[in-house]
Structures are given as C-alpha cells and as structure tokens.
Amino acid sequence: MHTIIIGAGPAGLCAAYNLENHHIMVEKEKTVGGLGRSREVDFFLFDYAGHIFFSKDIYANNLFAELLKDNHHFQNRHAWIYSKEAYTRYPFQNNLFGLPEHVKNECINDFKEALENREAMMPINFQDWIEATFGIGISKHFMAPYNRKVWARPLTQLSFDWIKDRVKVPTLEEVIAGSRSSIADKYGPNSTFGYPLRGGCQSLMDAFLPHLKKTDLHLEKELWEVDTSNRSIKLSSGETMGYDFLLPSIPLPVLVKKIIDAPDEILAMADKLVHTSVHCVNIGIDREKLTDHNWIYYPEDDVVFQRLFIQSNASPYVCPEGESSITAEISHSPHKPIRTGNIIDEVIQGLLKVGMIDKEEEISVTDQLNIDYGYIVFDKNRTACVEGIRKYLRECNIIPIGRYGEWNYFNLDHAFLSGKTAAEMVNMEND
Ligand SMILES: Cc1cc2nc3c(=O)[nH]c(=O)nc-3n(C[C@H](O)[C@H](O)[C@H](O)COP(=O)(O)OP(=O)(O)OC[C@H]3O[C@@H](n4cnc5c(N)ncnc54)[C@H](O)[C@@H]3O)c2cc1C
C-alpha cells in the first residue's frame, strides 16, 4: 500500500509518526513544522504568531513531553485585556475589576438581564449569541469589538456552533466577584501551558524527525495535481506518484481545486469555504522583561493589532539576554483589508499608544510574515460543505487531516490527533 502525506506540519508529522508502513511525505517548504515553525531574525526567535501548547488529551500531553524530553517547561497563563486605558484579566466576563465604575455596572446589569431572558432567546448568528449569553454591556465593551477584529468581518456572518467549549460562561455571582477584586484564575483550557525551553515551537516540530524512520521526506516539493481516477499525484518537480491513501493537510478548498477530475458540485462547495488571514509583526525590544504578561488582547480600534504575544515570556532562550520580544497579530480579509502601506510602523505607533514601549529607539529588530489561511470561518455553509467534500474524498481514498484539511478550529493537539487518527485508519486497511 502506498501512502502519501501532503504537508509536514503538526498533523502530517504526527500521521508519519503513527504510520506502521513505509510512506512518502511531501512538503513545499525547506523545513518541517507548518505553522509550528519558528524563524530566527538577528538572534531573536519568533514563532508563527506564538504557539503555546495546552491540551485536555492524554495522548497529546504525553507526546509533547516525550518528544521534547527535558527541553520544555510549563507555566501559568498571564493573559490580560487592555481597554479603557486599563488592564483587566482575561477572560473579560469574569474579570471586570479595573474598568471604570459605569462600565462595570453596565456589564453586570446587562448580564443579569440576559440571564433572565436566556431561555427565551433564539440566537441565529454569533453576534446574537454574544448578546443573548453575556448581555449588551459585555458585548459592547469587549466581545463584539474584539471578535470583529479577530474574524475581520461582521459577526452576523458567523455561526456559533464552534464556541461552546472555547468561551467560559460565568454565573452572575462570578461576574460580580470578578468586578470586586482581581483574581488570578484558572478558567479555560490554556490556564496552564507548555512551551519548549530552547528552539521555539520549531524544536517541537523537529523532535518528530528522529522517529520518522519509515518516512521518505520530500522537502521543497509542492502538490500540484491530484488525479483521483488514476489515484496519482503530480508534484511541482514534475514527478508523478501513485497512492493507495492520500493524507493531505493543505487547506481543503486548495486541495479540491488541485483535483483535476473533481465534480462541479464539490468545486462549488469548496468555493463556499471562507477563511481569515493573520499578519504577524515581530518586534525585538532592547529592554529586559518588558512585562509579566504572556499575551494581551486589544479590543479597541485605536490600535491595529488584536493581540500581542510576548514571545520572550514563553521561554528565556528565544531572545538575546537583556532584550524582550513580541508578536503583534492583525487579522485581515476582503471585509477588513490591511489599511496601511507600512504595517510595521502602524504596529510601532500602537505599541507607543498603549505604553508597551516608551520610544521608537527601543526597537532593535522588526520582521513580518503573513499567514494566509489563519482562521477557518464558521458560517452557515461550513458544516454542510465540509461534510459533502469529505464524503467525496473518502470515496477516493483521500483522508484530509489537520486544521486546514479538516477545516476546523484545531490547535496543535487536535492537529496531532487528526494525523494520528488518519494513520490508524490506514494501518487498519494494511492489516
Ligand atoms: C494566529 C494563529 C495562532 C495560533 N496559536 C496557536 C497556539 O498558541 N497553540 C496551538 O496549539 N495552536 C495554535 N494555532 C493553531 C495551529 O497553528 C494549528 O492547529 C496547526 O499548525 C495545524 O497544523 P496542520 O499540520 O494541520 O497545518 P499547517 O501547520 O498549516 O501545516 C500544513 C503544511 O502543509 C504544507 N503545504 C501547504 N500546501 C502544500 C502543497 N501544495 N504541497 C506540499 N505541502 C504543502 C505547509 O507548508 C505546511 O507545512 C494557531 C494558529 C494561528 C493561525
């Protein structure tokens, strides 16, 4: 049986790790890791948007520890929100302490009202769901503006089926308690997180390589075409390869367009899948311990970024001694294009505005990268289209894997598990 994995990101690497027979893995870049890669810029190491590890899954946790051995550490999350010129703890709804009194009162009163009416509410989109769940105040002061920045589109276009396990819905008592004092909390799956000590997230990706004894890895080769009737693929190098099973981790709509004999209805479904891109601006700063925070959310429109990830707090070994480093994330889409010719300058102006730096001279390094496929958009078409495409692909022995193959809101752990599950399906067929 010939198995070919497309893409050596977290999902592809974990599929290879779990396949029992010899197989091929094709990756278009020079290095493995996908969005788990890191890049070095003048002795500063930046992840692609900052990648911390957290999981409820035992296999994923064991894998993280086994791959990295001593080269990892865990820490408690210090996640904050900056709005109304004040810092409040994340998540906002549980931590109103620090906001102006009238904002706190509005959030609490509207939360109470939403709670009383929740049973009767029938939200039809994400905006409705936010208001029905948290009330107008929390929506207006954080949830709606922050999510508009992240998803880079009106929230009425989004569904809310994906949100359940991701957002904490507090009780009224918790909202009130969180408005009276600043409580270090343990809410959410990433309240404690792991990270490699040395080498950034890339070291987690590279740690797979010594285990991949049955993998014939082809770097710098891109999947060009898939011919399902002949069960073969063509690469950018001109090579043609036959497959019994194809495990692609490339974005689902991109994959469908590479299938030369894809039916029109499948192409039409692929056209309906929507995503948001994320531009990352990486900055090295000539100051020790810029802040204690791990990351900070910025819901307001006066700064271009929606989140700052403090890369140098993930590990002490990702930047030169005495320096700090951050990544600013800016989502964009045709609804909300990047509006400036010089995004690095705009980020620097934002850093000055929110007081993260005192003067431009503190900046020692700048860098930027764009993640085209950043967030999968959950809208009214997503579920039916993904199911339709998957059914068709399954008939062609194609098992899409990973965040973009499964077209789902996956973190590293889910991407690992997706690769593993697909490998186990292939192993069973081989038995
Ligand atoms: C802004 C942002 C922040 C994130 N932060 C976190 C975080 O803190 N923690 C966390 O757990 N997760 C985080 N994630 C999610 C995480 O990045 C993904 O879950 C994970 O990278 C998905 O792995 P994957 O293998 O499915 O896809 P990818 O990482 O996209 O890997 C796909 C691979 O396929 C290759 N490829 C693409 N096209 C072709 C082709 N035609 N031929 C050959 N190869 C090809 C690519 O080069 C890539 O190596 C974040 C994601 C984003 C966008």
Uncertain stretches:
none
- Main sheet: strands, sense, barrel: 7 strands, mixed
CATH level 4 superfamily of the largest domain: Protoporphyrinogen oxidase, mitochondrial, domain 2
Tell me the number of helical segments per DSSP (H or I, 4 or more residues long): 13
CATH first level of the largest domain: Alpha Beta
- Structural class assignment: alpha+beta
Q: Per CATH, which architecture of the largest domain?
A: Alpha-Beta Complex
Bound molecules: flavin-adenine dinucleotide
Rounded to an integer, what's the Rg over CA atoms?
Answer: 22 Å
Mean pLDDT: 95
The strand order across the widest sheet is 7-6-15-16-17-14-18
What's the total number of strands?
Answer: 18
* CATH topology assignment of the largest domain: Polyamine Oxidase, Chain A, domain 2
In terms of DSSP E residues, the strand content is 15-25%
Whole-number count of domains = 3
Q: What sort of overall outline do the alpha carbons produce when their principal axes are compared?
A: globular
Tell me the distance between the termini. 10 Å
Residue share in helix:
25-40%
Topology:
Elements (H helix, E strand, L loop, with lengths): L2 E4 L3 H9 L4 E4 L11 E4 L2 E4 L10 H11 L3 E5 L2 E5 L2 E4 L11 H17 L8 H26 L20 H9 L11 E5 L3 H7 L8 E4 L4 E5 L4 E4 L4 E3 L2 E4 L3 H7 L5 H8 L3 E11 L9 E3 L9 E3 L1 H4 L9 E9 L10 H11 L9 E14 L5 H14 L6 H4 L6 H19 L1
Parallel strand pairs: 1-2, 1-13, 2-9, 6-15
Antiparallel strand pairs: 3-4, 5-8, 6-7, 10-11, 11-12, 14-17, 14-18, 15-16, 16-17
Bound molecules: flavin-adenine dinucleotide.
Flavin-adenine dinucleotide (FAD) binds next to helix 1, strand 18, helix 12 and helix 13.
